TrEMBL record:
One of its GO terms (biological process) is negative regulation of adenosine receptor signaling pathway. InterPro entries: A/AMP_deam_AS, A_deaminase_dom, Ado/ade_deaminase, Metal_Hydrolase. It is an enzyme of class 3 (hydrolase). This is Adenosine deaminase. Belongs to the metallo-dependent hydrolases superfamily. Adenosine and AMP deaminases family. It is a peripheral membrane protein. Keywords: Hydrolase, Metal-binding, Zinc. Residues 19-358 form the Adenosine deaminase domain.
Amino acid sequence: MDSAASITREDILKQFPIKVELHVHLEGAVRLETILDLGRQKKIDLPAGTVDELKKYVCVYKASDLTKALENFYIFGPTFAGYHEGVYRVAYEFCEDAAKQGVRYSEVRYSPHFLSNSLGVQTYAASTGGSYTPRDVVTSVNQGLADGGKKFGVTVRSILCCVRHHPEWSYLVVELCKEFAAQGVVAMDIAGPEIGSIVTDTDQSLHLAAYKKANTLGVKCIAHAGEVGPAEMVRMSVYDYGARRVGHGYRCEEDEELFQRVVKDGVHFETCPISSLKTGGAPNGLDKHPIVKMAKDGASFSINSDDPTLFDNTLSDDYICALKMGLTKQDIVKSIFNAVKASFASDAEKQQLFAELQAAYGDQ
Ligand SMILES: O=c1[nH]cnc2c1ncn2[C@@H]1O[C@H](CO)[C@@H](O)[C@H]1O
């Protein structure tokens, strides 16, 4: 195996030809070319007219903080949010890009609210008073993923996100998860700024009530937690919200007892190496990266790209980053098997995926 320092994207595609991705945001996985193209068509003001120039405004290269990084969505979101053709195209192209990374099965997440324009409040759309509702958004994404999945030979399911600073949206997210379960919507998540966004007990209780309802209805629950927020967020997500997977989860390790409990309870960590270096999620660099401890302590984790538009990364780059932390090829193969186990694919799909992984990597 080449040393991690010199390994290329092409090497990764050869060494890890089959991948499974569980944590990637649809709004954060839009081609810059598509942003420019749709921007021209819809006459949306963008700060630059070429891909290289646009990167300077859209991508986060230096370590920043999560809340600041998330603001960039408002720069490029208006090109595709708020109308069927934009949302459909992003979902369709997502499938092609996933297939190019060797992804066979993916669960892509998004906020139906942020992509709508009917709510009278600011979303990513250019207008706030249109007629494209969160329900319409889900229909567009489902069509794009179904058509793209078929065309490019990849299975892509979706996860609907509540948004931390919009607790009033959460209940509809539960309803949409239930309504569209047969069209590939597999779970509910909560995303957005983890620190400072929940200010009142009422906000908190709205999210909690939505998660309780989801659990009652049999909607599977996951949550972003411990990305930049404290270990307590992980405790709350797993044991109060009923999340069986945690997005990021790095800071859980600050509470050793909790971390060991969560590992023992089989909770899966959806890690995003490159993102973690840009959002403040992993401030201590590569050698002391929380994923290293996850691997050492036998936690179930997967490797994911999070927001390729924002971080100018591909999934292969995240695999390279994991190798640079000192993870072995074996650790990474195991993480792909664990991703299948933690996925919301059907049992038959999981068997099929395991068979493909065994053919590529041998028995685990
Ligand atoms: O790394 C992240 N942490 C928390 N929230 C995020 C991250 N990346 C994107 N989003 C937020 O999740 C919403 C639904 O997909 C996105 O619109 C964005 O606001």
